[in-house]
Amino acid sequence: MSSNVGQNYPYTSEIESDRAAAVAAVIEAHPELAGTIATEATPLDASERWWVWKCPTKGCRGLLHAAGYSLEKHAVFVVCDGTCAKTFLR
Ligand SMILES: [Zn+2]
Q1: Farthest-apart Cα atoms in the chain, separation
Q2: CA gap 59, 69 in Å, rounded
Q3: Distance 14 CA to ligand 1 centre (A)
Q4: What is the pLDDT of residue 76?
Q5: Sign of dihedral through CA atoms 32, 34, 66, 70?
Q6: CA of 48 to the centre of ligand 1 (A)
Q7: Structural domain boundaries of the chain?
Q8: 5: which residues sit within 8 A by CB, 6+ positions away?
């Protein structure tokens, strides 16, 4: 990818069980993220399907999975399942 255009648009979507499994796997690999999510995000509402975004970190091929809402609820708090394991708001 040579452009940043479209980066904030969802890449795909996933069902709730896939999302939960992806986030659980990220937290298992990076336990400190559990604390970050607990302090910076609120739990998600029940939903069958969630958007997935591509990670914007250079060189990271991860995908961003919804892990909660930002405290203001204006954005979805997402975690990267790739090498950077960063969190973002979408
Ligand atoms: Zn990443």
Answers
A1: 36
A2: 26
A3: 18
A4: 95
A5: negative
A6: 24
A7: 12-89
A8: none
